[in-house]
């Protein structure tokens, strides 16, 4: 466990590229562009360009489509393997031929979101503050409009429209992906047959708004942030790294952190004698955050934080009104030990749907990872997921 | 609840001065000074000066003493009322004539710790990086040595020695106070008859080390911090405020935060249209942190973080060896919903003491405040506490 966790975290901490299989299917990144994209808040983007990936074959009736929406630090690489570097998708354990999300049967699509955390990752295609603003020929910075989870959904819908896909057999997402999944079911009820929310929520409550803000504050405080205008100067790397330290730490339950460091030395000589020397775990977390920061962009993190803070499924004033139109059968799978999007949040959405007479199931994922059980322990619920998708 | 919480938080967020009674006993701050104070890490402080308060009367045998040790953001004002401003101590609900910690019977003492969070609070007397270094006639800054919970204990012991007090009927503390309490029992087993750990732990585990570090990072990143040398310049106020935002948020369970904002507007117009506009809760937390920062000192927060990171009861290499000498009867009272010092941490210490053949009890405090239930809901365990002290 110790070795697996540490090497997995070294490879990216959200375990995007952690390998569970050496024989995943090859997959390629594709690109989708659309013009004059209208945003939920009324503003318009002249051009939106995002990456996407697909698995399996679209059938003639075009009714075998499953959309998988990604989490905060993730991207469209949900499964399969890139030929160039061998990187394997985060849910390869459940997406593939004969797996829970069976690509022998379903055409599985996943799309990079707007304002993706890693615009500087060569394997991510996204549009956000780091994108060149066609009006100025310089990066948007804070001129980029505020975007919402609904806008992520509508970019995906534009892609599906172009592909001639009218209905989704299912939409499935973990964490921030679950926000997109439930909003899909609320926004386009007649198009969504099944909705799976993994480690998810239906509304950002005040605590979540405040907790997300803790990820933004170090960026806002970094003098190099310069109100978002840093693309031709020193970047706010320190603030970004602090944000990523917090994100990394909060995604994991204390038990898994503690199990990772069985040889923890409380009274370590360095920290005991020098206020500027740190416990080895602190240095480890800083190094992992520094690695994660390589491809990330500080403004993109701010915009992602905001999209999550503004989330309420259905984008109505109250959640009940937002969920009312849903026609999909729903399945909520929170992680028992999740301290970030706690099971109570998924249960609330599940119970509200039941009150509204909708079909909804609730099933927890057990594990010691906390929030990350939505990735690390998803295979333990493969059978139930497979049955739900029949 | 909403009104009480908000006004309570406005008055200081750790509820130090929140009033439960309009008829508390008057109490005064006193001062204690000692020279050539040897620290656990081998360094020496030429002079240590701290504040303290006392309640009740020391009996002739000097054997009716209860020491109360304070939490991270607290000070010696545990109960009673200051005549100057009417401020009431944080545990006034359980400390006073006829109360659980009965000052008609016990002589209760509480002492400001070294490196107290609020050296600029006129009601706090402490020695730390903001103190004038007699060798240079300037504030110590980072020349101040790293101090540990054991050093807090030894300052208290020096005061008791001066008062001619050889034994403690009990030592009781909440949160960081619980660290001092259990270390007292381990360091001076023959002097401590009873030990009460409220919302406490016996050892900082790796998760706690990393979580505490999140409070330090924004200070370290603030350019005004200047490696701790800011006493004749702009102070690292922004970093300090960020630290205090995190401390405030983590001390409270999501449920109490959410209950505080029943009118939360997820799709608030400001944040939806302007990336530099924030939800009202964010502004509220920032304002509270700004108020808390008035008396606080950034370096002191760093040194407090370190003292907690270095904590292992008994200050041995392993916890079992550290707890082995304890003779006190112990009582652990974690808060059921505490996400900061989780009940599992107190339970671990309790079970280890039982394994070692010591007398130990375990009793959770119920409530919706989370960590702060150790203050806000302590009265619900007044009877059990009173009986334990018989």
UniProtKB/TrEMBL annotation, chains A, B:
GO biological process, one term: homoserine metabolic process
Domain AB hydrolase-1 residue range list: 143-372
Similarity section: Belongs to the AB hydrolase superfamily. MetX family.
Enzyme kind, highest EC tier: transferase
A single cellular component GO annotation: cytoplasm
Active site: 175 (nucleophile), 338, 371
Pfam families: Abhydrolase_1
SUPFAM superfamilies linked: alpha/beta-Hydrolases (SSF53474)
GO molecular function: homoserine O-acetyltransferase activity
Annotated PANTHER family: HOMOSERINE O-ACETYLTRANSFERASE
Annotated EC: 2.3.1.-
Subcellular location: Cytoplasm
Name used for this protein in its record: Probable acyltransferase
Keyword presence, Cytoplasm: yes
InterPro entries on file: AB_hydrolase_1, AB_hydrolase_fold, HAT_MetX-like
Keyword hit for Transcription: no
Residues annotated as signal peptide: 1-24
Keyword terms, alphabetized: Acyltransferase, Amino-acid biosynthesis, Cytoplasm, Signal, Transferase
Oligomeric and partner information: Homodimer.
